[in-house]
TrEMBL record:
A Pfam short name: Fer4_12
Keywords assigned by UniProt, alphabetized: 4Fe-4S, Iron, Iron-sulfur, Metal-binding, S-adenosyl-L-methionine
Protein name per UniProt: Anaerobic ribonucleotide reductase-activating protein
UniProt xrefs under PANTHER family: ANAEROBIC RIBONUCLEOSIDE-TRIPHOSPHATE REDUCTASE-ACTIVATING PROTEIN, PYRUVATE FORMATE-LYASE-ACTIVATING ENZYME
Superkingdom of the organism of origin: Bacteria
InterPro entries the record matches: Aldolase_TIM, NrdG, Organic_radical-activating, rSAM, rSAM_sf
Needed cofactors: [4Fe-4S] cluster
Record keyword 4Fe-4S present: yes
Length: 219
């Protein structure tokens, strides 16, 4: 890592999921997003506030801690706001294992190339195999695919996942709910109705916990 590569501001990680791309993947969600899409499934991760600060090397080791993991997925929040750190995570991970990399972004690819919103964007784009771009538009959510709405595009920036048989645009959605202590994490692009059911369940648990003790609600 160069001395200039910043630590990442991390909203959450998930080691080993089948809900965010082909194979068994580890997911890194960053904190902070400049967009405010109506219906965003992660509103807690929009504010640009300090969350978990972590160095790329520690994150790469964490994401590979399951030896079966064969891919990384970067989401958020807005990954391109922390592109330099994520590019370094990908680089360090690939020194240990030949993982594929999927990245979500609210920016369009053309904008990322013509006017990168942060200095590390070219390096991150060079590391990404599949980029899912564009803001979420609830009215265009067709309930299918590994993207929230049909305006979002699937860019195979390399051939690594192009012929793996995974239909990024049309496949039925799956999601996982991970419980860790008092935290509930919804992993994946949720099928229709699941997000409302998840919110309702978390609210119900919150109501039963003692006043003043908050149950963190993450997605
Ligand atoms: S770009 Fe993604 S994280 Fe940001 S507000 Fe839109 S849906 Fe939420």
């Amino acid at each position: 890592m160069s001395a200039a590569t910043p630590a990442l501001n991390v909203a959450a990680t998930r080691i080993g999921t089948e809900a965010l791309g082909p194979g068994l993947r580890s997911v890194l969600w960053v904190q902070g997003c400049p967009f405010r899409c109506a219906g965003c499934m992660s509103p807690e991760w929009i504010p640009d506030r300090p969350a978990r600060r972590a160095e790329p090397a520690a994150l790469a080791a964490e994401l590979l801690s399951d030896p079966q993991v064969d891919g990384l997925t970067f989401s958020g929040g807005e990954p391109m706001q922390q592109a330099a750190g994520l590019a370094e995570v990908a680089r360090l991970a690939r020194r240990e294992r030949e993982v594929s990399v999927i990245c979500f972004t609210g920016y369009r690819l053309e904008r990322l190339r013509s006017a990168p919103p942060s200095p590390g964007v070219p390096a991150l784009l060079a590391a990404v195999d599949v980029l899912i771009d564009g803001r979420y538009v609830a009215a265009l959510d067709d309930g299918r695919g590994l993207r929230g709405s049909t305006n979002q595009r699937i860019h195979h920036l390399t051939r690594r996942l192009a012929d793996c048989g995974y239909d990024f645009a049309r496949r039925p959605r799956t999601a996982e709910i991970a419980i860790s202590g008092p935290e509930a994490l919804l992993v994946g692009v949720p099928p229709s109705g699941l997000l409302a059911a998840f919110d309702s369940a978390v609210d119900s648990v919150r109501a039963r916990t003692s006043p003043g003790r908050e149950l963190p609600h993450e997605r």
